[in-house]
Amino acid sequence: MAYKIKFGTDGWRGVIAEDYTFDNVRRVSQGFAAYMLAQGGSGKWVVVGHDKRFASEHFAAAAAEVLAGNGLKVYLTDGSTPTPVIAFSTVHLKACGAINITASHNPPADNGFKVRDETGGSIHPAGLAQIEAAIPDSLEDVRIMPLADALKQGWVVKFDPAPDYIEHLKDLIDLQPIKDAGLTVMVDSMWGNGAGWFAHLLAGGKTRVIEIHNERNPSFPEMKRPEPIPPNIDAGLRATLANHADVLIVTDGDADRVGVGDENGEFVNQLRVYGLLAYYLLEIRGQRGAIVKTLSTTGMLNILGEMYAVPVHETGVGFKYVAPKMTETDAMIGGEESGGFAFRGNVPERDGILAGLFILDFMVRTGKKPTELLKMLFEKVGGEFYYDRIDSHFTGNRKDREQMILQANPDNIGGLKVLRLITVDGFQFRLEDGGWLLIRFSGTEPVLRVYCETRHADKVQAILRDGLKVAGLA
After folding, report:
1. What is the tens place of the pLDDT at every residue in 178-197?
2. In Å, how far are 298, 316, 389, 438 from 452, measured between CA atoms?
3. CATH code of the region 170-381
4. Second CATH level (architecture) for the domain 11-162
């Protein structure tokens, strides 16, 4: 019986040589091709790119061969390319969709298959279900045109996506003041696709960019995985202190997510980064427009929305929900708890490069370092917000555990009164201080995630402990 391929929130991921094989990549590519053809894509272009993981360029070539075999033309990147650059290229080249061979922030043994629509953003869950349903069980049902033939006949064209993306950035941000500011910027590209980008974009001025982990190494030394959170970024934080840098900018394996460290070598969690980015756009750049946020990110956005009279839309967790909502509302910014942020004028896709540049621009325009920017933000929203998260493996039936959570119906959590329960994605208990507890199941593994945000630093662990109790894990 053929291995059953299941799509998660952003596509398909698996363990290389175990379930992530060339044959299975070809099967998934056939499912994607069938979906594109059903959308009227015959003879249209698809962008295919890849990251720096083991054999990613070869998996990308295999996907291109299948697309060409199905009558779809392919723009194949000539090297490893950040996910946001692939997304931009999809729109810029008027392609009908994209495939990105990447496992993003997953452990070294994994690889993945991200899919995008003509907007460069995530495909809606209904579309993902159609792709999954179209994946054939047998290679006999996969149409393949050998890459050499496809290149010769013009069905596959290799291209460098960087120049057009860099020109596009100039419409979104003026890089010259950042170049002239004389900052020392530490950049950790986590052995991934973000390597070299900040150094290139900010070259030619007084600002100095120091990079670490900027070579290809699929084993990701000094980190468990290329995810921009501690302890994976601890080496970057130490390097920030050692080099007396003004800020640390971290991009994950495919450079669609961003992490930030302050001038003291302390991590700035992504909920606070989202608050900073929204505040920067509203206050410093004077922009107005909707804010799209997942349930698992900060309540500071709701406060900023009220202050600046802009709507705030909450979605389920994952950019497959954020991207369509951004397109629908012409949102100013959209983001999630994991450090993925998208911006109006760009594409509805996470862009760790642009997000990092906006943080630098915020520093330059205000003359403040990250700790001072946070102080500004907290003064604006009426105090500090604190966040933490616990991921726990669980056994047994998920439905039974969901019923247990519903039946728990706590009046208070961590000593704070529960105001209401929201079940858009998992179970979110809204608390009296404006904070929340979220209990949510992973879509790909037997893991239950317990997140919280609160105004009370001394209540974070108590809230999380109560969340584990509600979930039957403590």
Report:
1. 999 999 999 999 999 999 99
2. 9, 16, 6, 6
3. 3.40.120.10
4. 3-Layer(aba) Sandwich (3.40)
